[in-house]
Amino acid sequence: MKFPSLFYYFICRLPYLNKGNFFFFLVFTTLSLSKANSQVVSEEFKRITDSLIKARPATYEGLDSVLNTKRTDTIYMRYFNKEATIKQYPIGQSYALNQLGRKYRDISNYPKAVELHEKALEAALEANNLEFRVYSLNMLGVVYRRSDAIKIALDYHQEALELAETVNNPSKDLKKSINVSLNSIGNLYLILKQYDIAIAQFKKAMASAKELGNKLGLAINYQNIGECLEYKGELEEALHYYRTSLDYNNEIDSDKGRVICKNSIAQIYIKQNKLTQALDILEPNLLAAETLGDMSIIAAININIGWALMELKQYAESEKYLVTGLEMSKKHHLPSYIAHAYNYLSKLHTYKGDYQNALEYYQMAEAFNEEINSEVNRRYINDLIIKYETEKKTNQIEALARENEFMNLRLRKKTNTLIIGALGMALLTFILYILYRQKELKNEKQILTLEQSMLRSQMNPHFLFNSLNSIKLYIINNEKKNAVHYLNKFSKLVRKILEASSLKEISLADELETIELYMNIENIRFSHEINFTVRVDEPIDEHTVKIPSLILQPFLENALWHGLSSKEGEKKIHLHVSRENEKFIQISITDNGVGREASERIKESKILKRKSIGIDITKERLANFSKDFENSFQVEIIDLYDSNKVALGTKVVLHIPTH
């Protein structure tokens, strides 16, 4: 048992000490004082203090994570406060002074506790630290609430809560302080006997404690809700909440919490007339409370033991405990407990038939009850609570209005963005469409140009002149039959060329018929020396296979003028159509001319060089044609040689897509 606890305990019980006990008390006090004075601060703690003051953490958690094991030791906290003051670290001062204040509060030395918490608040203001300001204000509120100074307590808790709620993203410790404020305001509703409102407030504080994982906060709020239910007469439900609070206190190993819960459970048992069970809890609980040294709890337990003994008709023992509780309550200014003690003493003397003393005690109890629950107090608290709730709702409405305005602004911004985006998309679509149309027109123009070029290549003046000149020779030579025959073929060829020039594609059968006519006309000039043959493989249907119009004539013309015109002897051209695979047909044109190398040499030696543009135009047309298919066309030109590398002619292979 620590010295301060025993000291206050013996002071309060002096009237009941005999001479031997008093001598023991003096000896014990002397030894305790000697021991306390000899206690010194360890070197390790001095090093920790120096390190913390150098680091200067600005949060409660930053300090408490290091000092929590020493925060209940007044020697260490006084040393830390002294060093923080010397080295001008006001946040450290505020922390240490608040811990010292809590220690004095827990032994019910409320004036000293108030003095220390006020100094802690001054240090927090000097440091301009909101977290420690809120913490100090709440500590002052708790001290005044414990001593039933309701108006002052509410002022401090209200200020703490309003200050904490100015922070948008509060720290964990600031959230704990908000929880303390909410719990304290709930206790004020409890004092006003507004039990349902108080329970709602405690449940709000409980939800906050659950969110933080604060088991101490949960234990306190379960205890408070139990008190509300007890006052409402719901004893079994109150007992459930007290036991839940006790479970949390056991979990966090809080001696003080256990003592408070057990006293409340015993109080329920007394109301349920389970007097022996109540005393079984209260008597060992008194020893535990005396170890803690909290005079308010010791006073409450003494009063409850006196109450239970009174109901068991053990009046002498009952009076002894009630008087002890009363004297403690008076010494430490605990008006609620003074009123309870006077009430039970009045009832005790009524049981004993001493009505004069019973009346006096009753009148004193009423006087204290009136002091606690004065109309001014009640009106002041009600007004402040209504003001707080109104301001809170007003702030919420203003916040919602700002949020609504912000949302409208965002909506307008999004609407404008959407309109601009839609206009942009429309403009982009229009530009893309223009570009697409330009590309299409360019392609159409290119196709038209290719068709015109193709027509010019098919109907070039040399071919027309030479063809007509050949037919004229038949007429001159009086070969009327041949002249008419070839004139018919020539007119039919011209008609087919003109018809095909307006079409993108024609059937393979039409193309083969056109080149047959072309070769017949050209063969006149070669004195019918050209052996032109065509072979189409069986699976191919000439009438269903589609190819670009007039694509074979340029390759045949090239074979005639560059391959066969300079060749002596037999002249052959063979055209073969085959199915390469499901996606392509293959058209090969093979001649037995002089070959490309010899043709180039002959061409260079000529004065008048004939430039063939028909093949280049055809390649462009084939490329354009294959855009509508999955695959593209290919043209191969193969030089043919014998085993001695002598040129045997040229082979042109066209790979034309059908899909």
UniProtKB/TrEMBL annotation:
GO CC term (a single one): membrane
TM stretches of this protein: 418-436
Lineage: Bacteria, Pseudomonadati, Bacteroidota, Flavobacteriia, Flavobacteriales
InterPro entries xref list: Bact_2-comp_sensor_kinase (IPR050640), HATPase_C_sf (IPR036890), Sig_transdc_His_kin_internal (IPR010559), TPR-like_helical_dom_sf (IPR011990), TPR_rpt (IPR019734)
PANTHER family: SENSOR HISTIDINE KINASE YPDA (PTHR34220:SF7)
Molecular functions (GO terms): phosphorelay sensor kinase activity
UniProt TPR repeat ranges: 94-127, 219-252, 339-372
Domain Signal transduction histidine kinase internal region residues, every copy: 451-529
Name of the protein in its database record: Tetratricopeptide repeat-containing protein
Pfam name, any one: TPR_12
Keywords: Membrane, TPR repeat, Transmembrane, Transmembrane helix
Domain of life: Bacteria
SMART domains: TPR
